[in-house]
Amino acid sequence: AQIDRWNIVATLNYLPRDEEVAIIRARVPGITDHSLLESMVSVAELTRNGFAAGDLSTLMSPRTVIAWAENTEIFHDPAVAFRLSYLNKCDEAEYPIIAEYFQRCFDRELDFTEPNR
Description:
The protein is an all-alpha fold.
């Protein structure tokens, strides 16, 4: 019923990859490794595609990627920051899919046995 209240319905897609990387770099200037930012955005894109396909119930917004970058500065480990910024929001049944996305983009496994997973 709510959607029928509006005369115009618009779709807002995500930013192009280069623009998203530039925004994250501007918001978190302490991360100077361009390949790290590219990998982070790649994971985000995979979660968005997984959400659209119905494989995931939680996607990564640009704001989540910014939080991930900020936490990477704090913890000096993108995997720990990823768990604290995004993975802990997700259904545990989806962890294997998300871990695969992370592994594809970072070429390392997520260790679910570490504290603060």
